[in-house]
What does this fold into?
Amino acid sequence: MVNGSQQGLDLCARLLLDPGDRAAMEDPGYLLARQAFLATGAEVLPVPVDAEGPRTDALPEARLAYTTPSHQFPLGGVLAAGRRRELLAWAARHAAFVIEDDYDSEYRFDIAPIPPLQAMDGEGRVIYLGTASKTLSPTLRLGFLVVPAALAEAFAKAKRLSDRHSPSLEQEALAALIETGAYERHVRRVRRRNAERRAALLAALTEAEAGAVEVVGSDAGLHVVAWLNGVPRAREDDFVAAAA
It folds into this structure.
């Protein structure tokens, strides 16, 4: 258990990277992950992203790769099962680790779930990072890491050196929610509510101006990307006001 996903990223960076190591990362990608890797003195190498997420055919040789396969941040692509297998094969080939940041996978709408990389991993190469902030509250700094058995002791020691432990009261409350089934019921309820909000947003964007708005990354997650094609920058304030 960690104090939010950012502490999980920091632990991964400090334990897996030395100065001069190379880390592969989606481009565009999550800025705070990039900063955590750079803080170790590592070199961050960009991996281009398309509609299906990071292009696994463009992965460089590196010590680790960071990915958001369930809902690529920020463009929203979902990494297909074939690419997931290619990513795992890359990790085995280069003796590298993969950080799977599964930050909002509870929210899926028009697509069937794909097994996480961690469940497909037979080589002990995937570190799975999750958080409760997207389902319960962004102020609840409580996340978790699922690490390969060979790394578990090192991660536990590094966590203790950082802050002894994450808050016990919040952990006990979350555990009670999970054990009683209340957490799963809550997630289903929130998913339905957000599906309604998503439908309203997509309908409004479609009607906003014919041909002017192209929406991507709307199959999952809590955000979408809207490209405003041919709309002059001077009208940006109008769109913001209409969205509000």
The first strand starts at residue 22 and ends at 27.
